[in-house]
Amino acid sequence: MTVHDFTVDTPDGSSRSLGDYAGQTLLIVNVASKCGLTPQYEGLESIYQELHGRGLEILGFPCNQFGGQEPGTDEEIQNFCSTNYNVTFPVLSKVEVNGDGAAPLFKYLRAEAPGDFGPESGFLYEHVSKTRPEAIGTDEVKWNFTKFLVDGEGNVVRRYEPTVTPEEIRKDLDAVLA
User: Fold this and answer.
1) What pLDDT is stored for residue 96 in this prediction?
2) Cα separation of 3 and 15, whole Å?
3) Which of 21, 91, 94, 140 has the least CB density, counted as fewest CB within 10 Å?
4) pTM tops 0.85, yes or no
5) Which residues form the active site (predicted)?
């Protein structure tokens, strides 16, 4: 099984096979509009503009599971992303990334790359330790803007915790795109 075996919902109510992205490097990110990390949209869009021509596709998945920071409808989220951050990469339908209702794609991503969330995540580690202590030491997505790097074959290469900025993963993106 690979990421290419999954189908996801699009904001217009249809679905899309991730198999359509075979041969492309994917950066899959759970996003939110009202998060302190929301400005990462700028870095994501910048990297998308630079690397899309080399085969990078960024897929944003809005999620409201962390502090209610993505309360809008799919339409409102699309509007926010384009109006405030000029996002041109696909932002898909809102999903859950943890728990019984987690999207199958995110269950798979979490199992393939459980993450290494710890004190090096600074303020976010402190916050999650206080608000979601049960998540520490598990494969759960800890907060908005967790990123999963997937190669052209659909294999999960690495997970980046939310405080890792798009700019900080540029070297890894270049290596996978090479």
Assistant:
1) 98
2) 15
3) 21
4) yes
5) 35
Task: Tell me how far apart the alpha carbons of residues 78 and 74 are, in angstroms, rounded to a whole number.
Answer: 6
pLDDT of res. 116: 85
3-class DSSP assignment, residue 36: coil
Catalytic machinery residues: 35
Contacts of 64 (CB under 8 A, 6+ apart): 32, 70, 71, 94
| CB neighbour list of residue 23: distance below 8 Å, 6 or more residues apart | 55, 152
Query: Which residue in 118, 105, 129, 106 sits closest to 163, CA to CA?
Result: 118
Q: How many residues does the chain have?
A: 178
pLDDT, tens digit, 9 for 90 and up, residues 1-44: 999 999 999 999 999 999 999 999 999 999 999 999 999 999 99
The predicted structure's pLDDT at residue 178: 87
Nearby residues of 166 by Cβ (< 8 Å), 6 or more positions away: 27, 40, 43, 44, 46, 47, 147
Q: pLDDT (tens digit, 9 = 90+) per residue, 128-158?
A: 999 999 999 999 999 999 999 999 999 999 9
Strands 7-9 and 15-17: antiparallel
Q: How far apart are CA 113 and CA 142, in angstroms?
A: 13
Domains of the chain plus CATH, in order, are 3-177 (3.40.30.10)
Provide the pLDDT for residue 108: 98
